[in-house]
Amino acid sequence: MLNPPSQPSAASESLKLLNSPGQDSSSHKITSTEVYALSLLAINNSMTFWMAYIVVYINPGDTPYTSMEVDLELTETQYGLLSGVTYFLLSALFSIFLGALVDKYSRKWTLVVAAFLWSGLVVAQSFATNFTTIIIPRIMMEIALTASNASALSLISDYFSAEYRGRACSLYEFGVYVGIGLSSFSIVLAKLTGWRNTLRICGGVGAFVAFLTLFIKEPQRGKFNSLQDNKEIEDISKSLSQIEKFKTSLKIIFTNKVCILLCLSNIVRYFGSSAIGFWSVKFFKSKFPDYQSEYSIINGVSVITINLISLYVGGAIGDYYEQKTPAAKSYIIAIGALISFPFLLVAFKFSNNFWLSVSLFMFSFLFSESWRGIVFSMLQNVFPSQLIGSAFAVFQVSGGITGASSSLLLGILSDKYNAAENPTAAGNLLTIVVGSAYIGSAPLFLLSGYFYGKYQFSQC
C-alpha cells in the first residue's frame, strides 16, 4: 500500500505479497515478449556503460592517434571530469526530472529517443579538438544516458512478477559489465583504428541497438500491483495537479525506510565501485606497462563471464531464499562485499606479479558484483510500478553524487601523488577507498534488509 494504515490488523494485511493482485503472479509465465524486451534492455544498459566508460580506455600508448588524453592534451583533473564527474553529477541533477517523465509517459519511447540521442552524441565527441569541444557533447550525452535506468527498470517491474525480479534485474544489470568489457576492448580498437574511430564505432552500434528497441512492447502499467495500490494511484491522478502528484510521489518515496537505507548504502558502496572503474585501468597500466593488451583482453572477457555468474547466481539465490528469509538479499550483498575485499587488497597492494594481481582482481567480482541487481529488485518490490521511475531516480541521485565526488577526489589526489605514474600510490588509494566503501556499506545493507523483511515484498 502507498500509505500503510496504523491499525495492526490492516497493517499486517498490507504486508502480504500482492494482497489483491491485479494479475495473479503465481500464474505468470515468461514468454518470448519478456525475453526479447529484457535482452534489449540489458543491451541498452551495456551501451550506456560503454559510452560512459569508453574515455577511460581510449588512451593506449603515447601517440595522438591512439590516445585521447595525449591528443587533446588533458590534465589529470580534466580527465577526471570527463571520465566520471560530469556523468555522475548530471545523473544526480537530471534523474528526478527524467524519473517523473518515465512515470507519466511511455517508457519505451523515452528509452528509444534517448538511445538515438546518446549514440549520435558519442560520435560527435570523435570530432573534438580540445577539452571544451569534447566536454560539451559528452555532457549532452550523459543527460540522455540518465533516462536509461528509470525507463528500463520501470518496464521490468511490469514485465516480471516479484518472484522473477531478482533474476530479471540481475540479467539487466549484467549489461553494465558487458559495457565495461566492451570499454576494455576499446584499448585494442584504439590501437587498431585510433581513438576517434573507436568512438564512431561505439556510436554506430548504439544506433543499431536503438533501432532494435523500437520493437519491444510497452506492458500494462501496474500489471502486478495490488488492486488497492492501483486504486490509490488512480485517485491521486484524478484529484491532484501534476506538481502536487510529483510532490506526493516524492513524499511516499522519502518516507519509505527501505528506499532511504538502500540509498545510503548506495552512497557508501558506490564510492568503491566508481574508484575501481576509474582507477583500476591506470593502476595496471602504470604497474604492468608491458601487459596492456593482455589486461584489455582478460579484463574484457573476465568482467563479462564472471559477473554474469555473480549476478545471476546472486539474483537466483535471493529470489529463492527471500521466500523463507525476507532479509536474505541484504545478507548476500553484505557478505559478498566483505569476502571480496581481501582479494582486492592483495591485488592492489601486495602483489608484484601481473597474473596474480589480475586473477585476484577478477575473482573478487564473483562475490562483490551481484549487489545492484538485487537492490533493484528490492526497490521494485516495495513500490507500485507507477512510482518506479521516480524511486530509481532518487536512488540514482545517491549514486550520482557519490560517483561525482569520488571521481573528482581521486583525480585531485592522483595529481597530488602522481598516481598515474606511481602504481604504489594508485594501489594505496584504491585499497583505502574500496576497503572503506565495501566494509562501511555492509551494516547499512543489513539494516535495509531488516525493514525490507517487514514489507514482505509488498509493493507499497
UniProtKB/TrEMBL annotation:
Region (Disordered): 1-28
Membrane topology according to the record: Multi-pass membrane protein
Subcellular localization: Membrane
Annotated GO MF terms: transmembrane transporter activity
Keywords, ordered alphabetically: Membrane, Transmembrane, Transmembrane helix, Transport
Signal peptide residue numbers: none
Main location: membrane
TM stretches of this protein: 35-58, 78-102, 109-127, 139-162, 174-192, 198-216, 258-277, 297-318, 330-348, 354-375, 387-413, 425-452
GO cellular component, as recorded: membrane
Top-level taxonomic group: Eukaryota
Domain Major facilitator superfamily (MFS) profile positions: 37-452
Similarity comment: family membership: Belongs to the major facilitator superfamily. Spinster (TC 2.A.1.49) family.
PANTHER family assigned to the protein according to its UniProt record, in alphabetical order: PROTEIN SPINSTER, SPINSTER
Name the record gives this protein: Major facilitator superfamily (MFS) profile domain-containing protein
Biological source species: Euplotes crassus
